[in-house]
Amino acid sequence: MRRKQVLPLAALLLCAPAVSGTAPAAAAAQADPPRILLTNDDGYNAPGIRILFERLTAAGYDVTIVAPLTNQSGSGTKMLSAPSVTVRHPEPRVWAVDGTPGDSVAFGLSEVFADGAPDLVISGTNFGPNVAALATHSGTVGGAVAALEQGVPAIAVSTGGLSAPAPEPTLNAMRPTSDFTVGLIDRLRAHAKSGRLLPEGVGLNVNYPVIGADGKGIAHGSSVTTQDPQPFLKADFTDSGDGTWKVSVHVVPRPAAPGGDVEAVGDEEVSITPIAANWNTGRADFGRTAALLAGLRP
Prior knowledge:
The protein has helices at residues 3-14, 25-28, 47-58, 101-112, 132-136, 139-149, 167-192, 261-266, 283-293; strands at 35-39, 62-68, 87-91, 94-97, 120-127, 154-159, 203-208, 222-224, 233-239, 245-251, 270-275. The protein is of the alpha/beta class and 298 residues long. The strands form 2 sheets. The chain has a 9-stranded mixed sheet, sandwiched between helices. A two-stranded antiparallel ribbon has the order 9-10.
């Protein structure tokens, strides 16, 4: 249903000069930098969000962290329905919400940014990739979706390759990830001409690969991608015989879909996937399903 918006967005991101950490002149000339709500699913004090906070702040952006108090990885789009929530304000420009990324964004938009919505919500950078089905269940992506539901442009950012993330290389790769994110925002800002940074209802899921044994390398390019349909992970259950089951999860490698996020990260490129806050299908699938169900009555 939103496919018409993807091609102009792809042209914006890929046909202009290369995304980098240097602000284009048009962006630099604007007096007021965008206000950014920065969240994640690893927790407000995780290395990824702190590295990105430092880089965005150094680039002149007005950044406030509103993120989960504790690790909420894999929480997806979950939002709590409890009658109260604990919120801490441990330091200036940092709020820690005892809930999910969605809860954090909801609190941030309602209370921290009560005087006006931020120009952008960024969720990340996550420790590990959020490609294929990982993105569907990701709290990082869930934070971005919560913003999109409220009409605020949003970008989910993750750092990782296609294997289990090794700590040191992944942490090192968060710095080029953050540099790329700044360049991406600069690009969007230069084209926005004081308007929205992204088309209405469209967010981005960005996956930056780990390059080199130490993770300090720079990605070989960037591609606007689709979300690969493969499940990526498989859970196995072993009966312990006492009513409990042991769970093990492992990667199940499958051929990458052409033009998908898995293919791009495997080619050591940054994957940029346009996302929406709903689960609507494309026109063709909608039409086929409507034909299949035509005449069905209760």
